[in-house]
Amino acid sequence: MTASRAVPQPHELPEARRAPQRLELTFRVRGTDCAAWLYPGRGPGPAPCVILAHGFDGVREQALDRYAERFQREGLAAFVFDYRHFGASGGEPRQLMSNRRQVEDWRAAVAYARGLDSVDAQRIALWGTSNSGGHVLKVAAADPEIRAVVTQAPLISGPAQLRSMPIARSARLLGAGLRDQVGALLGLKPVLIKSAGRPYTRAVTTTPDALSGLDRITPLDSTWRNAVCARFALTTTFYSATRAGKRVRCPLLVCVADGDNVIPPGPALKLSERGTLRRYPSTHFALYYGRTFAAAARDQAEFLRTHLLPATLRVVGS
Q1: CATH assignment of 23-157+240-313?
Q2: Distance of alpha carbon 59 from its chain centroid, rounded?
Q3: Is the pTM above the cut of 0.85?
Q4: What is the pLDDT of residues 70-81, one digit of tens each?
Q5: Rounded CA separation 317/314 (Å)
Q6: Could you state, in order of their start, the residue ranges of all structural domains in the chain?
Q7: Side-chain half-sphere of 293: how many Cα atoms within 13 Å?
Q8: Burial 102-122 (b: 16+ CB within 10 A, else e)
Q9: Where's the Serine aminopeptidase S33 domain (predicted)?
């Protein structure tokens, strides 16, 4: 049971959020529909586009609309999507978190966005956060046409993530993952565990601010569920975007929360040697709301303007 939703503060709701221009779209990945929002650019002709998706089991209404609207105010288009198995997208079983599938979804989203008449296919940027902060590195490393990448509080190294966790907790997650995977092979129902819980409970994330942070960014009518198929632990343990990060050739912005107690910031700080670093005195979840969100969105908008918009078309955001 989570706490009551926090009431958004004035600095969390910029004026442009009152009436965003947004279209509901779908695209297909291996026969399954993925739900997406398109925030069209506000200038004449096709607009440069930022593609966004959440981390781990997150869904698009968990503050990604805030980032998309901020970028739209700069004259950029934004394309925000839900992964298969989550949110408004299709896919069975529900709540199946797979890094491989999510990277496939990213590549399909890029291809779909490039085919939209309102999008400039030559000016595409990727925006990832948490788990998807590693995904965007993999996609950009294999796609030389990507113009810029923003990676925020990224999960780059699964082994580093595992080492940061207490051994007993890691063992419990791996054990649940093994039961879930064996059950899947036998045609049994998924073994679900909570994505977030109180400290010392059986959940993936148990930091003191996990539940309160999610409450701040999850609308009451959200499609998000506090559950994930446990088998994710068997593959995420070995997930790594370190090599991909070294192969990214486009401009790269790395945003790090110095107080991140969900994902160790060390690998991200190392990655930032290849790009631009912005650091915030905040926790992981604070990047999605309040003053930390405002600061991160401002820095990211400036970075994206610089690399996607001609100087004559840049708009100074409020």
Answers
A1: 3.40.50.1820
A2: 8
A3: yes
A4: 999 999 999 999
A5: 9
A6: 23-157+240-313
A7: 25
A8: bbbbbebbbebbbebeebbee
A9: 47-275
